[in-house]
Amino acid sequence: MELEKLRELLKELEKTSLEEIEIETEDFKLKAKFVKSPPAVTAPSANVSPTTPSSTSSQPEATEHREEKEIPENYYVVESPMVGTFYRAPAPGAEPFVKEGDRVEKGQVLCIIEALKVMNEIESEVSGIVRKILVENGQPVEYGQPLFYIEQV
């Protein structure tokens, strides 16, 4: 099963009341348990945040879109490739991968997004300077949510 199709499937399944699913084909087997928690939880966990829109989540998104329009042209927006929990460092108490003002190279790890108990390293697609980190450590993120602004130099 292609990774992108799997991501789409998991995103759609989060919108349902299913708590567990098992899918098996000739060359692929997937068993997933969805543990849903309130969005206020900020402690590290393996919970996948629901992507169902709510009245409170639509207002911040509008603000984020306004910010995106105001960013300079030479800024690259690093977006979350998945739904999960955002971590700035490789382990609790460790130094963050990057800080605002740090110079980064293409391919350098910027953060980790935990999804379904898997730690996914998110790498920079450009070289430049981290100008803004838009997400707090331990915060749930959604697919396509802006995470960083990197000034391309």
UniProtKB/TrEMBL annotation:
Keywords: Biotin, Fatty acid biosynthesis, Fatty acid metabolism, Lipid biosynthesis, Lipid metabolism. Residues 42-61 have a biased composition (Low complexity). This is Biotin carboxyl carrier protein of acetyl-CoA carboxylase. Coiled coil: none annotated. InterPro entries: AcCoA_biotinCC, Biotin_Carboxyl_Carrier/Decarb, Biotin_lipoyl, Single_hybrid_motif. The lineage of its organism: Bacteria, Pseudomonadati, Aquificota, Aquificia, Desulfurobacteriales. It comes from the Bacteria. This protein is a component of the acetyl coenzyme A carboxylase complex; first, biotin carboxylase catalyzes the carboxylation of the carrier protein and then the transcarboxylase transfers the carboxyl group to form malonyl-CoA. It comes from Desulfurobacterium pacificum. Pathway: Lipid metabolism; fatty acid biosynthesis. NCBIfam families: BCCP (TIGR00531). CDD domains: biotinyl_domain. Residues 40-73 are annotated as: Disordered. Residues 62-72 have a biased composition (Basic and acidic residues). Residues 66-151 form the Lipoyl-binding domain. SUPFAM superfamilies: Single hybrid motif (SSF51230).
